[in-house]
């Protein structure tokens, strides 16, 4: 079970990498718009993150930090809303508002920071 949990964590990290990588490509040198790859990465990170939020496959005595997990969930919901609303604006007007675009990158980095630093 512990190995399976590590595999799910691996999938979670791939999702994060795809979301942040796809965003970084557009932010630095690309066209500042949302792409399908960002939504795919977010969905992967979300599904694997929710699986990791349940207490299974943990070493003896280890506990989950639910305040941290809850905060990450709220941040993820904000990223999802921005991607959803931004993508529909982009379809209608051809561009995503700059603030929405930058917020997706900042909030994704924030969630990775929370994951790594908050113990
Ligand atoms: C875009 C959104 C997200 C990003 C960028 C992200 C990033 C990360 C990263 C980098 C790690 C590895 C850190 C470590 O192992 O110490 C991690 C672990 C983890 N994430 Fe996420 N995550 C996101 C969303 C979520 C969500 C929505 C949940 C649950 C509701 C979640 C739950 C977890 C759990 C339980 C771990 C295992 C390690 C720990 O307890 O900190 N994550 N995440």
Helices and strands in order:
Elements: H1 2-27, H2 36-52, H3 66-93, H4 98-117
Helix pairs in contact: 1-2, 1-4, 2-3, 3-4
The structure holds protoporphyrin IX containing FE.
Protoporphyrin IX containing FE (HEM) binds next to helix 1, helix 2, helix 3 and helix 4.
Q: State the separation between the terminal residues, measured CA to CA.
A: 22 Å
Main β sheet profile: none
Report the average pLDDT across residues.
97
- The geometry reads as elongated
Order of helices and strands: HHHH
Q: Domains counted in the coordinates: how many?
A: 1
Number of DSSP-assigned strands: 0
Radius of gyration: 15 Å
Helix- and strand-based class?
A: mainly alpha
Strand content: under 5%
Helix content: over 70%
Q: What ligands does this structure carry?
A: protoporphyrin IX containing FE
Uncertain stretches of 5 or more adjacent residues: none
Number of helices: 4
Structure commentary:
The protein has 119 residues and is an all-alpha fold. The protein has one domain. The chain is 76% helix and 0% strand. Helix 1 runs antiparallel to helix 4, helix 2 (36-52) runs antiparallel to helix 3 (66-93) and helix 3 (66-93) packs antiparallel against helix 4. The two termini are 22 Å apart. The structure holds protoporphyrin IX containing FE. Protoporphyrin IX containing FE binds at residues 9, 12-13, 16, 19, 42, 45-46, 49-50, 52-53, 64, 69, 72-73, 76, 79, 108, 111-112, 115-116. Keywords: Membrane, Transmembrane, Transmembrane helix.
